[in-house]
Amino acid sequence: MSELIPFSNGTQFLDWQECNCCRCKKYKDWFIEELTCDLQKAIEDSSCGDGTVSEEIYKRLGAGTGKYCWKCPEVDWDEGS
How far apart are the C-alpha atoms of 81 and 78, rounded to whole Å? Predict the structure, then answer.
């Protein structure tokens, strides 16, 4: 499998995370708790590295839409957000 870059820069990553991860019931603050979402863990890890994720994670994120920010296919909306 190849490695792909889902976000064009750190700002897009943070915007996507705010619109999806931070509003999801599965979201954990990695400073406080162990991450439980594979997608959040993969993009958090990639943000500290070269920005790449596996092809599987890229597809699960729904990346490659050409949109700046898109809805995560696996988000479980937190009603309080």
Answer: 6
